[in-house]
Amino acid sequence: MKSISTPTTLNKHITIPSLIFIIGVCVGTILFPDVTNTLLNTVKEFLFVNLNWIYVWAVTLFVLFLLYLMFSKFGSIRLGSNDSKPEYSFFSWLSMLFAAGMGIGLMFFSVAEPISHYSSSVFGENDFVNQAKGAQLYTFFHWGIHAWAIYGVVGLALAYFAYRYKLPLSLRSCFYPLLKDRINGKWGDAVDVFALCSTFFGITTTLGFGVVQINSGLETLHIVSEGGFSNQLVIVAVLTSLAILSATSGVNKGVKLLSKINIISVVLLLLFVLFFGPTVFLISSFTEGLGNYLSNFFELTFNTHIYESDTLPWFYNWTILYWAWWISWSPYVGLFIARISKGRTIKEFIAAVLIIPALFNFIWMSVFGNSAIWFDANEAGGMLSALADNADQLMFQFLEYLPLTETISFVVIAIIIIFFVTSADSGILVMNGIATKNAENSPKWQMIFWGVLLAVLALLLLNAGGLQALQTMTLITALPFALIMLLFCVSLMKGLTIDQKYYDRNFSVATVPWSGEFWQERLKKIVSFKDSKTVDAYLKTTVKEAFEELCQEFEKNGIEARINTAEQPVKTEIEIKHDVINNFIYGVKNQPKTVSEFMIQEENLPDLDHSKTFYPKAYFGDSREGYDVQYFTKNELISDVLKHYERFIEIISDQQNEMFVSSNYNQKK
Fold first, then answer.
1. What are the extents of the domains in the chain?
2. What is the pLDDT of residues 237-293, one digit of tens each?
3. Domain 12-502 belongs in CATH node 1.10.286
4. What is the 3-state secondary structure (H, E, C) of 164-201?
5. Which of these, 147, 144, 172, lies nearest to 158 by C-alpha position?
6. What whole-number distance in Å separates Cα of residue 33 and Cα of residue 92?
7. What is the rounded distance in angstroms from the CA atom of residue 44 to the CA atom of residue 46?
8. How does pLDDT run across 190-249, given as a tens digit for each residue?
9. Whole-angstrom Cα distance, residue 19 to residue 115?
């Protein structure tokens, strides 16, 4: 796998088995579509009928687990070092995770699912109230907190172990507390192969269904003639080219820009339908629907319909299929969400991933789904219900009952295209990341390779009628991955517990508190304010002299320590390097501080001419919060370093902390 000009970063232990499996499955599906579809449907039906309780329990546990973490003491832990900051603005972050998480599905099912439930006998026949309420309730259920909890578990586990423990952004890293260094062997490769294949199949099937809906919209607008593989060929070629162009430009450019455009376009379309549709009905039905969802939340969550034999087929084909579908997509979406979430706290991550997108989905499904139901009952005479089995046409037929139909249809097609491109480009980035173990500076031809492979196989499957079989196989793989995700929860809980204990560990009882021996000098320091030069002098004299004496004493005890200095800002640190465990670092830096206006104006305090003062602040290698050391004498500073070193030795000698204190070593591997 070599490029003529640039060597590949693809990992052969992941890429070769994945390509063999992907191409083998697709070729088998293309050559024998009917046999493959029958076989896979038999397996899927067995799993959905006999093991549906596993899906129900798994998804329920994911929701409860994330809610617990959000309100627990672990919620303040940051996905990264304690001083790390988010890489993207809140709006950019939400736009990208939303576009990757739901994408085309919102356009495909926003009218199709509510109409399908509404026209089903499950919620009664010729009973508008129960049919409409049931349609909205279960649409909320399928697109709400439960779906995002599945994505959230994978994304949180990945982001935590990648940015907190400095492990690769890979599914294998989520097993680190359980498998330790064995994640770098065959078990880890197997997990990554599974993730790569699952991501590829999920995006391929989504591409296929997106192409079908775009083609249907273009036919409705009479831009292209009906049917024809040539139409699909052109659509796939254009969309894939845009996705590759976006992916090769990177997350900070193409993906972020398209995601922002998409979310703005979607909100404008939403407002158009809200204002020109049955506005009062939509606002009232959303309010009642949200209350209905919240009041029935736990009943919906645990309901297996075992006492309602007539509704069981519907339950298998909707709820269980959705849970399997979201789980099968979670490796891809979770990886992408994790990639853009560095620096967020766990509480912030869960609140944003679990609640905000779900709430938007509720609004979106209410506006489009309830508008379609209202039009069907009051203006269309049941014509929309009659198209319940033609999901790709329903959106465009629904638009016939709104003003500016042709213009809005063009807008919808454009949004579907952008949704597809944002899903595909982030998918290409994720697949390349899995296949290279997140190697940096991958050549652009690798992005092109994954994009072309997606396009070619999607077209072949569309032409041969094998897309449905591929989707079925993707749903089957969701069951074993649901069990893997439960292990992610166990692993994450173990890591968080160790993390919390590490930062809660206090100084040893043998440490000596600050004495009052030099209290007059200290009072003088307390009531005076420092400029930058004064603090610099303190660092270059008292601090440096203390560290030099420490280095000499460490050397006498067979330990090599060194002093590091920097100028902007001025800082001095003592470092003891290690091969496997993290280095011990105690440093002091010149830290500015803005002073309150009240203090400047107060007469019974020392004079202060400027609003900014400076002080020497201690910092540590594990990014714990430091503190002011300006009152420390040389010997007291030495004592303080030894207190932290004693704490360091206590922590690294505890076996349960071994994976946490080796995060720098993890990063090197």
1. 12-502, 519-668
2. 888 887 787 777 755 555 667 777 777 888 899 999 999 999 999 999 999 999 999
3. no
4. CCCCCCCHHHHHHHHHHHHHHCHHHHHHHHHHHHHHHH
5. 172
6. 41
7. 5
8. 888 888 888 888 777 777 777 777 777 777 777 777 666 777 788 888 888 877 877 777
9. 39
